Amino acid sequence: MEKRMKGHNERIRIEHKLIGDGAIVWFKDKKGSELAHINVRWDGKSLRAIFSGTREKAERLASILNALGAAAEARQYGKKWRVELTTDSITAIRRSEWLEAVKALVEALYKNGVISNEKREELIKELEAGPNVVKVAGVEISVVKKEEAGSKQLVIRYQPTSAEAFEAAVKALKEAGLEEGVHFTAKRPEKEGRGYIYLKIPASLWRLEELKRQGVKWAEKAVKRLEEIAKARGFYDLVEKHLKPAREAETVDPRGIVAEDPERGVKAVIKDVKVMWEDGRPRIVVEYEAGGEVKSFYFTWGVEKDGKVRAKVRLNYEKAAVLAALTGDETLRGKKQVTLTARHLFTMAKIKDVGWTLLRWYAGVMAEGLKDTDAGALPI
User: Domain PaRep2b: where (predicted)?
Assistant: First the structure.
């Protein structure tokens, strides 16, 4: 049926009627006979379109919606069959009559005091922006911005229509270089639930940027599409913030950088910065030249009991000046001992041959459920 509907979707007439705080949308043939219908309403947080009825009607409706660009599925709940669309699928349908119906509902919700003007403008922007789907390793994943308790969050999710679709998506993501638990979380569909795959933020975006740097074409297209969606829907600042550490990763060659502390008569030239491993933790080894002599010091990143990523470093005036140059933190000058935080780690991720190792390690330890509040603007 779906194949036939795709060939005739432009012939389908779409009509609507506002009823209270909802709308009923009919799909009719060219003679005006009803083929299917669905109710669109506000659930308190987002727009939903729902139908509940017989299996035959549900499957016919799902075929029509899919032909129009949505991702719909008829599912059995008790004795009834349901078709349900989230805001993502609602905005994916680009027929003008459908968009007019949904916009009319949004205006009615605002007029009746159900939603604020800010929410009204947000919903209209989503409708005008169109589909919010990014292809990640061939998996079509939706991108949305969520606001809770005054904070903005980027949510990238895939809702499979079957167990087979779920398994195929997980397989594709793993084969593309994304690690379950680190870059995404997944729950298999069950009888009463659809299941899901969520990309972890920002670890998944860092991985996409890394693959893009390696010349992987689908990753390049995915990042570009993600940015297009974010700009169209007004949350590009959120995407840019999460991508920034990966975009700046390994863009700075530290060799030859001059570290100075005039107040204490210190001048040193950084010779090299390397990363080694110590019990699964990254050890940073810094070599520098001062007074005609090559010297070095090291420190090891780790996760403390409070879940924060830190590195404790014993210093002298020379080492403090060098570390200040590497981290961009001039307050470290003159210190005898300091504790570096995630903020310093992200700055050091810019260093050539060090950056990606630090970002991969950070994403891995945060995947274990730790919450590094020192990360500030970059929560996992």
Answer: 23-191, 203-365
Helices 355-366 and 203-213, packing angle to 10 deg:
150
Helix (H) or strand (E) holding 225: helix 217-233
In whole angstroms, give the CA distance from residue 88 to residue 37: 19
Q: Which residues contact 367 (CB under 8 A, 6 or more apart)?
A: 181, 182, 200, 203, 380
Q: How far apart are CA 77 and CA 190, in angstroms?
A: 12
Tokens coding 224: 């570009």
- The pLDDT, as a whole number, for residue 2 is 45
SS3 label, residue 318: helix
pLDDT band at 8 (very low <50, low <70, confident <90, very high): low
- As a whole number, mean pLDDT of residues 64-93 equals 89
Compute φ and ψ for 187, nearest 5 degrees: -130, 125
Going from the C-alpha of 57 to that of each of 36, 67, 272, 297, the distances in angstroms are 7, 15, 69, 72
Tens digits of residue pLDDT in 86-107 = 888 898 898 999 999 999 999 9
| Rounded Cα distance, 58 and 51, in Å | 7
Residue 207, strand partner residues:
none
Measuring CA to CA, how many Å separate 226 from each of 133, 213, 315, 328? 8, 16, 43, 30
pTM score, whole prediction: 0.74
